[in-house]
Design goal:
Blueprint (H helix, E strand, L loop, with lengths): L8 E5 L4 H12 L3 E6 L2 H15 L3 E5 L5 H10 L5 E4 L14 H29 L2 E6 L12 H21 L4 E8 L5 H14 L3 H11 L8 H11 L11 E4 L9
Parallel strand pairs: 1-2, 1-4, 2-3, 4-5, 5-6, 6-7
Length: 259
């Protein structure tokens, strides 16, 4: 299927690896001119070169921490009027809420709610003026089914979800869509880190904990970043203009709810 977005310009945050990288790869294959941002130069440069070679497309790499004003400014200076925005930032650590300080709560909200909102604020009016735009926020399946040990993430991402629910309905009439993608368990560094923490807490080997986690998935496996990236690319396509304000699970059916 031709997604109809060749030549569009996109910003993808947190794109040096994992789900962000997969989103960037999927868009580049569709002919989108991408600007990718992440904090670490070596990994980001490697990713940019991989995507250039695979897609033959233009890739701009910006070393930046988008959770800071300076980082956002750097990314927007490289692509100041994007047609597509994918927001994505690393999740906060797992733990017991009794151990988290007020500073840690503020950091989680800054990284996983406010940063996304400020990136949206920076680009949405240009999209409205052009009568075309696609914004996808990478959040978490925890928005639908909270994980007890991920309270920082549960709270911050739920706040972003509530904000998007209102704004997406305001801008839809301008052919600007805002949706959230909710990943379940995918084969990423984040999955390994969380499973390592669980394995340490239960004093079991990491391989055992990974096998148990995989067996607990409805599909009997973890998702791949490539599968996730393909869904993100479709939401950014010409064909997704009637999908507005949705929270789309990509979790292999593990969430058991009807709605």
């Amino acid at each position: 299927m031709d997604l109809g977005i060749a030549g569009k310009r996109a910003i993808i945050c947190g794109a040096s690896k994992g789900l962000g990288k997969a989103c960037a790869e999927a868009l580049a294959r569709e002919g989108v001119k991408i600007t990718i941002a992440a904090r670490h130069l070596a990994q980001l440069a490697e990713t940019a070169e991989e995507i250039r070679k695979e897609s033959g497309n233009r890739v701009t790499a910006v070393v930046a921490d988008v959770t800071t004003a300076e980082g956002r400014q750097a990314v927007l200076a490289a692509c100041n009027n994007p047609d597509i925005l994918i927001t994505n930032s690393g999740g906060p650590p797992a733990g017991d809420f009794r151990d988290w300080s007020e500073v840690e709560w503020h950091q989680a909200v800054q990284n996983n709610m406010i940063t996304h909102i400020l990136m949206i604020k920076a680009v949405v009016d240009g999209m409205i003026d052009r009568r075309w735009g696609r914004i996808v926020n990478v959040t978490s399946a925890a928005v639908k089914s909270p994980y007890p040990s991920l309270g920082l993430s549960n709270g911050a991402r739920a706040g972003l979800t509530g904000f998007v629910a209102g704004l997406s309905r305001e801008v839809a009439k301008y052919n600007v869509t805002i949706n959230n993608l909710l990943p379940g368990s995918h084969e990423t560094d984040r999955l390994i880190k969380l499973t390592e923490a669980d394995a340490r807490a239960r004093r079991v080997h990491l391989d055992t904990a990974l096998a148990e986690a995989k067996a607990a998935e409805t599909s009997g496996r973890f998702g791949t970043p490539e599968e996730f990236g393909a869904v993100a690319a479709f939401l950014c396509s010409q064909h997704a203009g009637y999908i507005v304000g949705q929270n789309i699970l990509v979790d292999g059916g593990t969430y058991p709810g009807t709605l």
